[in-house]
Amino acid sequence: MAVPPILSVTPSRALVDEKFQVLVENLPPGCPVTLRSLHRSEDEDDWEAYGHYVSDHRGVVSVSEDLSFGGMYTGKEPMGLLWSMRPVPGSRKGLRLRKINVCTPMLVNISVHSGHEGFRDRTPLASALAERWYMAPGVKRIDINKQGVQGTLFIPPGPGPFPALLDMWGGGAGLLEYRSALLASRGYVSFSLDYLRSEHLSADVEFKYFETAFNIIRNHPQVIPDRVGILGSSLGSMVAFNLTAYSTIIKVSPRCIVCISSNHYHPPGTTLKAGFKILSKYVLFVGRINCPMLLVNGCDDQNWPTVETAEEVARLLREGGKEHLLSRLAYPGAGHLIEPPFSPHFRATKFIILNSKEKVILLWGGHTKPHSDAQEDSWRKILSFLQLHLYHSPSVKANL
Amino acid sequence: MDRKQCCVKLSVQPSRGLMDEKFIVLVQNALPGSQLTIRALHQCEDGHSWEAFGHYTADTTGTIDVSEDPSIRGTYSGVEQMGLLWSLRPIPGSKPGLRMRKKNIQTPMEVTISVYQGHQTEGFADLVPLSGVVVERWYMAPGVRRIPVTEGGLTATLFLPSGPGPFPGLLDLWGGGGQLVEYRAALLASHGFASMAIDYLTSKFTMETGKMVDNQYFETAYRVLQQHPQVCGSKIAMIGLSFGTSMTLKMAIYSEVIKLSAAVCISGSHVQPVEGSVEEIMGFFQKNAGKTRFNEKNEAIWRDLLLPIPTDPSLKADVGRLQCPLLLVVGEDDQNWPAQESALDIKEMMARAGNSHLLTVLSYPNAGHLIEPPYTPHARSSTFKTVEIQEKVMCLWGGQTVEHSRAQEDAWKKILFFLRENLYGDRNPTLFSHL
């Protein structure tokens, strides 16, 4: 029996935004092999990615150092085995990969197969299992149902108190916890707010709901009250933006805000009624924004006019003498769904429209490689922005 | 600078690691030049609390990097990336003679690492840290499978690496305390070896019959491993510590059944009645129990029981007949076994027989008897009960903490390299650079 090659993934247990090194040793020199990742989602769909490599004179393939010559990604891509994942051939259409249970890790099986063409027909030469976690050890997860507000709160380990974030996703999402879990793993009390899909809520959500949510965070014993920010994506970013613009009226004063893929026009089918009727007059309130803001969008966003929105916001702030508050990250080739790094890209997926309950395929946009680069780059910059404004003490706070 | 700092950030990377992996402890956003204490706290399975700490000064950017900055004083000093783990010791007021060993290796060792204002040395329980994180340290990598083995009357556990295999095999033996000790085998499986930890002194058979196992017990273990579909039957090695060394050498040299590709012997000796059974070898040591000495703390020193190294060949395993590579690991301050003297004699015997090209000796000044996988606390002495003596004794193992910890780290790397080279046949290995 011949002794097989050795495949290692380091670290074997990591947070989802951490890089890993995939190394194959003990191959024959100059040997063509395929590195493959395989993941079974919570919905029981199989996702995979693969790259074609050639071992060096020592019989080694290092995914961090070597180039892939084909497969789902090419070139030097240390994390290609994650971000280029797609449903395996024969899967249902329009799938999206999102973890609902954040208390367990995402399990990814990394394997090495001989040859390039037809590698799937051969048993792997070796494989290793990697765990990808949204929650660092010691992070606490707490269900919140308080004063009519619902959501999930994540608290970092340690005595605190900590800076905090109100975290809001967009339409069609239900309650997603993974970004808040990850933010808590990075040192922020993070509250993922449920404001659209709960059985107790409807689209008829008032400003008061968000104000209460913000105050619940602010008054939490482990939160530093004047270091609470808001982070929103898609519809959530619109909420974030408008909450801040109306802050003197509704007494929500975030220390900073991050808006990902935001829009200031009403997207069809996901209208928030009542309190948001006055949105059309929001232009006049841009002048009320007094905190640093980071706008992130993909230039190939096919879902919302986020490019136009970002430019409009920049113009309005400039006219109001508030341009120094704004930072913009605009990524060519990236689509609407800008998520934490190394997660797969979805150009179009199934979607259920909130009001009509109609099932459609929605085009989000973006092309995989630039979109994945945008996710990696933007996450690092978002964390750096949050660290500057929420962690650094006042005496060293710099202007944007 | 005494006023309480706000928002000091502490991070440990990786937050979930294997027991033998290094981590980076980073403090950020502290006041530049402030004095801080970084402390590790661990509650072991027995309920005892262990702590370690170092005193640091934040640099001009308000940062402390434990892998680059020196600890001025504490349970360790100097630049010690892993000092917070290997210098762990029972908190003041604990029972004497404790030793940290994990029994349940399917859960991680959890360590809380915190940073405190000022240079603190005691009373941590009454202080509120500025920041704290939890770190998990695992003996088992994801995907490693733990399989209890009872076939052929064995009391053993097999750990298989993840993947299809086949994998080289390893038989893992501990010493005179008996029990089924799994952690080293679990860790070795995490490095690609199908490892079987074997209880050969307190097995089910022995507990039920009162009799010690015979040579066939080890041969059965070898066969079970060899015949496993995911094990490469022609690539099996054996690793033994203390009394486990005696068994390893016995099997490597005299067994007709066991054909080893390599052997690792830690803190042991070749001195034993040749062709003696397990029971007879144990009895041989017991016969010399009168040579036990006690130090000023009344700790038992057993290293003289096998001294002087006999000249009578019937009292030494004939290492000249070894046909596989042998790695000997020796602590020069071993107070429990005469490992250093034995290693010298082994070297001589093999030189005379002409097979010394098979021998590698790793000898560590000021290291003691218990040379274990790295980054776990050093026990210079602890309460111990062998299967022969039914009462607990305070046993002196030896070693000075800093040098012993360095020895553990270095020896482990070299053991893995040795096993990799001999079992995977790697001519130009890329070392375990993440260790």
Automatic annotation (TrEMBL), chain A:
<dbReference type="InterPro" id="IPR014940">
    <property type="entry name" value="BAAT_C"/>
</dbReference>
<dbReference type="InterPro" id="IPR042490">
    <property type="entry name" value="Thio_Ohase/BAAT_N"/>
</dbReference>
<dbReference type="GO" id="GO:0006637">
    <property type="term" value="P:acyl-CoA metabolic process"/>
</dbReference>
<dbReference type="InterPro" id="IPR006862">
    <property type="entry name" value="Thio_Ohase/aa_AcTrfase"/>
</dbReference>
<dbReference type="Pfam" id="PF08840">
    <property type="entry name" value="BAAT_C"/>
</dbReference>
<protein>
    <recommendedName>
        <fullName>Acyl-CoA thioesterase 15</fullName>
    </recommendedName>
</protein>
<dbReference type="GO" id="GO:0006631">
    <property type="term" value="P:fatty acid metabolic process"/>
</dbReference>
<dbReference type="InterPro" id="IPR016662">
    <property type="entry name" value="Acyl-CoA_thioEstase_long-chain"/>
</dbReference>
<dbReference type="GO" id="GO:0047617">
    <property type="term" value="F:fatty acyl-CoA hydrolase activity"/>
</dbReference>
<dbReference type="Pfam" id="PF04775">
    <property type="entry name" value="Bile_Hydr_Trans"/>
</dbReference>
<feature type="domain" description="BAAT/Acyl-CoA thioester hydrolase C-terminal">
    <location>
        <begin position="280"/>
        <end position="391"/>
    </location>
</feature>
<feature type="domain" description="Acyl-CoA thioester hydrolase/bile acid-CoA amino acid N-acetyltransferase">
    <location>
        <begin position="17"/>
        <end position="145"/>
    </location>
</feature>
<comment type="similarity">
    <text>Belongs to the C/M/P thioester hydrolase family.</text>
</comment>
<dbReference type="InterPro" id="IPR029058">
    <property type="entry name" value="AB_hydrolase_fold"/>
</dbReference>
<feature type="active site" description="Charge relay system">
    <location>
        <position position="234"/>
    </location>
</feature>
<feature type="active site" description="Charge relay system">
    <location>
        <position position="336"/>
    </location>
</feature>
<feature type="active site" description="Charge relay system">
    <location>
        <position position="301"/>
    </location>
</feature>
<feature type="domain" description="BAAT/Acyl-CoA thioester hydrolase C-terminal">
    <location>
        <begin position="205"/>
        <end position="264"/>
    </location>
</feature>
UniProtKB/TrEMBL annotation, chain B:
<dbReference type="GO" id="GO:0047617">
    <property type="term" value="F:fatty acyl-CoA hydrolase activity"/>
</dbReference>
<comment type="similarity">
    <text>Belongs to the C/M/P thioester hydrolase family.</text>
</comment>
<dbReference type="GO" id="GO:0006637">
    <property type="term" value="P:acyl-CoA metabolic process"/>
</dbReference>
<dbReference type="InterPro" id="IPR016662">
    <property type="entry name" value="Acyl-CoA_thioEstase_long-chain"/>
</dbReference>
<dbReference type="GO" id="GO:0006631">
    <property type="term" value="P:fatty acid metabolic process"/>
</dbReference>
<feature type="active site" description="Charge relay system">
    <location>
        <position position="369"/>
    </location>
</feature>
<protein>
    <submittedName>
        <fullName>Acyl-coenzyme A thioesterase 4</fullName>
    </submittedName>
</protein>
<dbReference type="Pfam" id="PF08840">
    <property type="entry name" value="BAAT_C"/>
</dbReference>
<dbReference type="Pfam" id="PF04775">
    <property type="entry name" value="Bile_Hydr_Trans"/>
</dbReference>
<feature type="domain" description="Acyl-CoA thioester hydrolase/bile acid-CoA amino acid N-acetyltransferase">
    <location>
        <begin position="20"/>
        <end position="151"/>
    </location>
</feature>
<feature type="active site" description="Charge relay system">
    <location>
        <position position="242"/>
    </location>
</feature>
<dbReference type="InterPro" id="IPR042490">
    <property type="entry name" value="Thio_Ohase/BAAT_N"/>
</dbReference>
<dbReference type="InterPro" id="IPR014940">
    <property type="entry name" value="BAAT_C"/>
</dbReference>
<feature type="active site" description="Charge relay system">
    <location>
        <position position="334"/>
    </location>
</feature>
<feature type="domain" description="BAAT/Acyl-CoA thioester hydrolase C-terminal">
    <location>
        <begin position="214"/>
        <end position="424"/>
    </location>
</feature>
<dbReference type="InterPro" id="IPR006862">
    <property type="entry name" value="Thio_Ohase/aa_AcTrfase"/>
</dbReference>
<dbReference type="InterPro" id="IPR029058">
    <property type="entry name" value="AB_hydrolase_fold"/>
</dbReference>
